[in-house]
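Run Cyclic nucleotide-binding domain-containing protein through structure prediction, thanks.
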Amino acid sequence: MNKNLLKENILKNVEISNADMNKICDHFEPYTVQKGEFLLTQGSICKFEGFVLEGCFRVFTLDKKGNENTLYFAAKDWWLMDLDSFMNQTPSDLNMQALENSKVLMIDKSNKQFLYEQLPVVEKLFRIMSQKSIAAWQRRVVRNHSLTAKERYQYFIDTYSEIASKLTDRQISSYLGITHEFLSKIKKKKE
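Sure, done. The structure for Cyclic nucleotide-binding domain-containing protein is below.
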């Protein structure tokens, strides 16, 4: 699998020599995931951080009543992980499911730790990526508390149109924190 997209993603965050870039990329293993396949299920330990080359994943929880609550989607050029489970090697609360045939580059904890020790730029890279991720989560929480469901839906469609086109209404409503029926009403009013 070509790792050029991973290299481009890294370069968005840090300046790095070609030699160091190649060392980093050499520690990522390619995986092909079929539509519907799970990379992670609740209760198992997350043993990877992943970078999506192709396809789309849904990251969600399943509550005691069987309701799915989508935390995020990871499409091409996005990172995929359960940071808590990965860092602490504790059972995950998350499920990661491929919504279409997908290709992912994955790194395990020992390889990531090796890179931290060998290349100081890797610490900087993942610190910057973590900060960006926290900022994105914060923006989402603010939107969820300050926007109406209709405004959240419109924001999602406008901002993530490529991802939205791959999703069912049930998956979108799960992400927005509304019922499928309420999303249907929102969509009917827009027509």
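The CA atoms of residues 69 and 174 lie 5 Å apart.
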